[in-house]
Write a structure and sequence with these properties.
Elements: E1 2-15, E2 18-24, E3 37-41, E4 51-55, E5 58-62, E6 65-73, H1 77-83, E7 90-97, E8 109-115, H2 119-131, E9 135-142, E10 159-164, E11 171-172, H3 176-182, E12 188-192, H4 195-207, E13 214-217, E14 233-234, E15 242-243, E16 250-252, H5 253-257
Bound molecules: FE2/S2 (inorganic) cluster.
C-alpha cells in the first residue's frame, strides 16, 4: 500500500451516467488483484471526507506503459471532480488496499453477478479469468438499460445475461432469477452490488441447498480505507464486527449472512 500521484491518460463517459477514468499505473500496482481498491482524494488534500474508495475496473497497456481504470457513477462532489479530470491532470491515490477476489485453482466454471455500478471490479476479474482459459458467465442487473455495462466492451468469451427492473434490456426483474438458474452450473460465484443483493443471493443459495463458494465484494462507505475510522464496519449475523476496508472488501457471503 502506497500513496501516489497518478496522471490521467483518458477520461470518458462509457454509458448512462457512468464514467471511466484511466490513469498511468505506478510499478507497485502490478501486485494488485481484481477486487482490491484504491482511495482517491479529490483536490490536493488528504481530507478524509473527500476520500472515496474505487475498485480497479480494468488494466491495460497504454502508449506510455501500464494503465489502470476506475469506473464510477457521477453522484456527488468527489465523483464530479474526478469526472472533470482531463489527460495530464493528476489524482492523489492510496493503494492497492484490501483483500480481493480469490478464484480457486483448478476450477473452470465461474459465475459473476453484478448489480449497478457493482460491475466495476467484475470486469477486471472477467478479463483475468478469461485470460486463464476459464469459462465465465456474467449476470448484470440494473434498474434500466442505462445502468448496464455495454456487452461490446466485455471479452467475447464471456456469456452475458442481463436483467433490468423496467424490462428495457434483457430479462425483466433482478439478478436473483438467473443466479438461481446458473448456480448449479458454476464451480464458484463472485458478486458485487448493493447489500440487499448479497443477502438475496445468499438466500437463493441457502434455499437451493448449495454449498458453492460465493465471494461478495462489499461496497461500504469508507472514510479512511485503512482500518482506523470504523466507518465501514459490518456486523455478521453470527456476531462480531468486520471492517470492509481491511478484513474485506471480499467476504464469503456465508460468513456474513449465515
Ligand atoms: S474505512 Fe476507515 S476503518 Fe474502514
Amino acid at each position: 500500500m502506497k500513496s501516489f500521484l497518478a496522471e490521467v491518460t483518458e477520461s470518458v463517459r462509457l454509458y448512462g451516467d457512468t464514467h471511466a477514468l484511466w490513469l498511468r499505473s505506478p510499478d507497485h500496482l502490478a501486485s494488485a488483484v481484481p477486487g482490491q481498491f484504491l482511495m482517491a482524494y479529490a483536490g490536493e488534500s488528504y481530507d478524509p471526507l473527500l476520500g472515496r474508495a474505487f475498485s480497479i475496473f480494468r488494466v491495460r497497456r497504454g502508449p506510455g506503459g501500464p494503465e489502470f481504470g476506475v469506473l464510477f457513477d457521477v453522484v456527488g462532489r468527489g465523483t464530479d471532480w474526478l469526472s472533470r479530470r482531463r489527460e495530464g491532470d493528476q489524482v492523489r491515490l492510496v493503494g492497492p488496499l484490501g483483500r480481493g477476489f480469490e478464484p480457486r485453482e483448478r476450477v473452470q466454471k465461474m459465475l459473476l453477478v453484478g448489480g449497478g455500478i457493482g460491475v466495476a471490479p467484475l470486469i477486471w476479474l472477467a478479463d483475468s479469468l478469461v485470460a486463464e482459459g476459464r469459462e465465465v458467465t456474467m449476470v448484470l442487473g440494473g434498474r434500466t438499460e442505462a445502468q448496464i455495462f455495454p456487452a461490446a466492451l466485455l471479452p467475447s468469451e464471456v456469456e452475458l445475461v442481463v436483467t433490468t427492473e423496467d424490462g428495457s434490456l434483457g430479462e425483466t426483474g433482478r439478478v436473483t432469477a438467473p443466479f438461481e438458474r446458473l448456480l448449479p452450473w458454476c464451480d464458484q460465484a463472485f458478486a458485487c452490488g448493493p447489500d440487499p443483493m448479497f443477502e438475496a443471493l445468499y438466500r437463493v443459495a441457502r434455499d437451493a441447498g448449495s454449498n458453492k463458494p460465493i465471494q461478495g465484494l462489499l461496497e461500504a462507505r469508507m472514510a479512511c480505507g485503512l482500518g482506523i475510522c470504523y466507518s465501514c464496519a459490518v456486523f455478521p449475523r453470527k456476531g462480531g464486527v468486520r471492517l470492509v476496508c481491511t478484513d474485506g472488501p471480499m467476504f464469503d457471503l456465508r460468513d456474513l449472512y449465515a
